[in-house]
Amino acid sequence: IQDAIDRVAKYPLDQNGIRGAILLKKGTYQIPGAININTSGIILRGEGLSTKLIATGAGQRKLINVNGNGKSKEIPNTRTRITDNYVPVGAKSFHIEKPSNFKVGDALMIYRPGTDQWIKDLKMDQIDAREGTVQWKAADYDLFFERKITAIKGNEVFLDNPVVMAMETQYGGGEVYKFTFDGRINEVGIEDMLIESEYQSDTDEDHGWDAISMNRVENAWVSNVSSKYFGYSCVNLGGMSKQVTVKHCTSLSPKSKIEGGRRYSFNNDGQLNLVMNCTADEGRHDYVTGAKVMGPNVFYNCTSTHAKADIGPHHRWAAGTLYDNITTDGEINIQDRGNWGTGHGWAGVNQVLWNCIAAKVTVQNPYVSGKNYAIGVTAQKTNGRLTGRPDGVWEGLNQKGTLMPKSLFEKQMTEAGKKIQP
């Protein structure tokens, strides 16, 4: 398989950015190591569940690893200040000091600095400490959002996707600059297969960890893939993944201890990613984001059964996630996680639960810089781990079947003149 991938990697790109597809015919393929895709335009395709890839033997690893190289680089002498005192969530334009630095189509990085005052106002320098707790530091919370310029009118630049965290002068405002990411690959797809891991026992952890991992990749997809027996994920999207669609995928029977750092069935740490029509069973954090995940991101029309932990922003300060029509027999929580982990604190801001069904739901608002929403949720409302936090915005609790539109994601797609691909 790796030889075929390496051969296709040498083909030229066609007009759609594709080099070619590799078809794995029905059968069982034993993989003692890993399969690596490091070049744009490669599709790895099976013939459904009859194409089975097995991570054989011992060793935690990513069985299919899609990964470019490097990181984004600022283009010198392009950085300029956002001049608006306040840029609200949802804005698709703002004013800048030097618009002459940019043109339509430029890749734009929006930079929001972390500041001591912001940390103080969030009370994240006052986390109830236990062994290993790290109080938040301003320098660790410089935030970066990738966008593209669609228009420029005078000093106002227009964006392809909205701001998902307010730019506030009182907390340092914001800046923008052009950037390149030459090592990021694109137009890579994994389709139509079953991926399994060998294991020695239900708590074995020396075996396949991620069925599919993607990072440093954009405009990519995973479709109609089922995984069994992996310790961490069916699909794991890294922090430098962008515009990846994961759809019609299933995570089954993970094998690991049932504790922290395990069973994140569909994990997303990237930007502008979509997970839709997926199913997870016996996971812990089935539809989840990690630390400083800069949206927008969407989990849409997904289910979770026999959940061992909660769905939602799991780590610290994810911004702009929509959980739309998520159904679970476990919990969905958006809250101050306090000293869990190394001091997760506020897990997310501008998070929206829309028409979700769960056993229990907690939604709290951070003290500053945004809100969290529970709209049309069917669940027992709970106070969360830590009391005394501001309550989130709740509408239509336990009024099942009355919310219109039934899907915020579908409505936004319709208004944008786009169709959701089946």
Detailed description of the structure:
This protein has 422 residues and is mostly beta strands. The protein has three helices and 37 strands. The protein has helices spanning 2-8, 116-122, 408-415; strands spanning 20-23, 27-31, 35-37, 42-45, 51-55, 62-67, 73-74, 80-81, 86-87, 93-95, 107-112, 143-153, 156-159, 167-168, 175-180, 185-186, 189-197, 210-215, 217-228, 233-237, 242-247, 250-252, 266-268, 274-276, 279-281, 287-289, 294-300, 303-305, 312-313, 318-324, 327-328, 331-334, 348-354, 357-363, 373-375, 378-381, 393-395. A hairpin with a 2-residue loop joins strand 12 (143-153) and strand 13. It is globular and about 60 Å long. The two termini are 28 Å apart.
Task: Give a short overview.
It is built from 3 helices and 37 strands. It has helices at residues 2-8, 116-122, 408-415, and strands at 20-23, 27-31, 35-37, 42-45, 51-55, 62-67, 73-74, 80-81, 86-87, 93-95, 107-112, 143-153, 156-159, 167-168, 175-180, 185-186, 189-197, 210-215, 217-228, 233-237, 242-247, 250-252, 266-268, 274-276, 279-281, 287-289, 294-300, 303-305, 312-313, 318-324, 327-328, 331-334, 348-354, 357-363, 373-375, 378-381, 393-395.
